[in-house]
Amino acid sequence: MRSSRLDLAPRLIGRCAGVFYLIVVVATIYNTALAGGTGLGHAAGLLSAVAYVVVSALFYHLFRPAGPILALLAVFLNLEGIAHQQDSLAFFGSFCLITGYLTFVSTFLPRVIGVLMMLAGVGLLANELMPLLWPSHPRIISTIAWSLDGVGELTLTAWLVIFGVDPLRWWERAGETPMLASGRSADVL
Question: Which of 119, 122, 28, 102 is nearest to 59 (CA)?
Answer without folding.
Answer: 102
